[in-house]
Amino acid sequence: MKINQEQIIDLLIQACPSYRSRAQQYFKENYEPGDERLYYLEASDFNHFIIDLYIDKRTEDFNRIFDVIEELHINGDDYVKELATIGFLESLQHHLDHENIDYKSFETYLKQESLKWWKHLIDFWNGNTEYVGGPLKEK
């Protein structure tokens, strides 16, 4: 069975229990009952959280966190796969830029499929591919 967007936050909290209170606060501040969820913004909030953990040298959950990101890439429905790449990985790269943290600091946690998409994103932003996941241009 494919992972859908409604399952993502629960999977992340299972991997990183310390995120639970922040997620609850995020939902309380950003949603009213019946509101449509904004999964890309939820991903961005989670990325802020894990960067704070990284800065505080609290990375004990990172392997499990990035196992979840890998699962989203492999077993997610189409929306979840795109969210894993754009909502989590690309957003994380932008947050890392903002904090002046080298991408390589996080590459050690990425699994095979996630690392592939991570590198595709870097190639895209460096102008080495025409679209995310697309073929590399001849040089």
Provide keyphrases for this structure:
single chain; 139 residues; mainly alpha; 65% helix
Distance between the termini: 42 Å
Helix and strand composition category:
mainly alpha
Tell me the number of strands.
0
Average pLDDT: 92
Low-pLDDT stretches = 134-139
Task: Determine the number of helices (DSSP H or I, runs of at least 4 residues).
Answer: 7
Shape: globular
Helix content: 55-70%
- Rg from Cα: 15 Å
Q: Sketch the major β-sheet.
A: none
Order of helices and strands: HHHHHHH
Approximate strand percentage: under 5%
Describe the structure.
The protein has 139 residues and is mainly alpha-helical. It is built from seven helices and no strands. α3 crosses α5 (78-99), α4 (62-75) runs antiparallel to α5 (78-99) and α5 (78-99) packs across α7 (112-125). The protein is globular and about 45 Å long. The model is unreliable at 134-139 (pLDDT under 50).
